[in-house]
Specification:
single chain, mainly alpha, Hypothetical protein af1432, GMP Synthetase, Chain A, domain 3, three-stranded mixed sheet, 15 helices, flat
Amino acid sequence: MNLFEVIPALLIGAIIGFFIKKLFTSQRVNSAEKKAEIILNKANQKSSDVLLEAKDKSLKIIEEAKTEERERRKSLADLEARVANRESLFDKKLMELEGDKQAVANSKQQLEKNKEEIKEIRKQQLEKLEKVAALSQEEAKDVLMKNTEARMKDELLHLMRKLENQSTEEMEAKAKEILSGVIERCAAPHTAETTTTSVSLPNEEMKGRIIGREGRNIKAIEQLTGVEIIIDDTPDTILVSAFNPVRRHLAKRTLDKLMVDGRIHPGRIEETVATAKKELAMDIKKAGEEAAYKAGIVGLDSKLLQILGRLKYRTSYGQNQLQHALEVSHLAGLLAAELKADVGVCKKGGLLHDLGKALDHEIKGSHPEIGYDLMKKFGLPEEVAYMSIAHHENHPTTLEGVIVKIADAISGSRPGARRDSFEEYIQRLTELEDTAKSFEGVEKAYAIQAGREIRVFVSPDKIDDYASEKLARDIANKIENDLKYPGEIRVTIIREKRITEYAR
């Protein structure tokens, strides 16, 4: 095949291929146009549906808005109607108020007019009476008052004296009857304790053994027990001195045990002191429990009973304080039963009224405040804790406080309860007078009634009435803080100015 035959064949093939391609292309275009037309028709149909749906929704929204608008207009119309109704009612009330106001004003004018008429009538009547009696109104009033006063004065004074004497006599008789009955029912032994603790020795040689080589034994005892041991020329006796009575009894127990054992050296002393402490603690607790049992009181905390038992080793002017507490408890209970007071509060308060004395050597403050704080700490009620303070107050605020104060005074003042040596008695009175004289403006001071009252005479030019009240309180506070005394001391300030002139 030559070139001329190949080229026409290629041309014919190319032309045929072109037409075939064009045919296929035309078919594809027609197919694409049909698809596009179908998609377009679908899109138009969908848009028509969306448009119809949107129109439906817009119509619904418009209808709802119209409904809300109608309701709002209706509510506004109702509101306007109510406001108009209220305005009409308000106008009506206002008119009524104006009418009432005018009526009140008219009534007031009429009342004033009537008052003037009554005054005029009264004036005319008084003038007529003055003419009849020949006295003015003031003169008649003075005469009437003087006659009434003169007539009633003697009668009132006589009646007042009669009632006062009758009341005083009846009260004193009743009080004596109650107190005598209570005192008779409370039998108490005379005190037999002293404030000095002595230790008896089997022989004089024991003094040297207690002292030890270079004083090491006596130093160990004093250091471990907190006391001072006094060894003098008294035969077969040594003295134990300490401000705290519990320490004195601890030292006495220790010395008694050492003398029985016979071995006295620092090591043995330390063991004996530890043993004596345990025994003393048990004895103190037992004493507190027995006191509560004798008083008929239950439910007290064991630690509180331990503190109460310490009063067994505390004395006040020779009177054992635990025995004193028991006496006050019994007396207060009997008095409470007679006076219809709370017997339980009186008995418990009486037993614990001096509880602060068990720790006043160790805690700062006066024993009433210490006792009050202790009882509150252990959960006792306020009316019981108050007894610690009430028995030192001039005027207790409760009936039970007055009863415990009286019972405390009976127990402390009964014959044989307390005792002072003559020297101690004179020293106490002297200290009392010197305390009062130490204040500026005091001229003289006298202790009377066995030291239960101090009368202080002051200079009237230096001390006025107000300063006298303050001075009495200051003297009482200084006595409480600086002196030791049984019961209570009354401070009386006397301010007197005498002016003397002679007519010649």
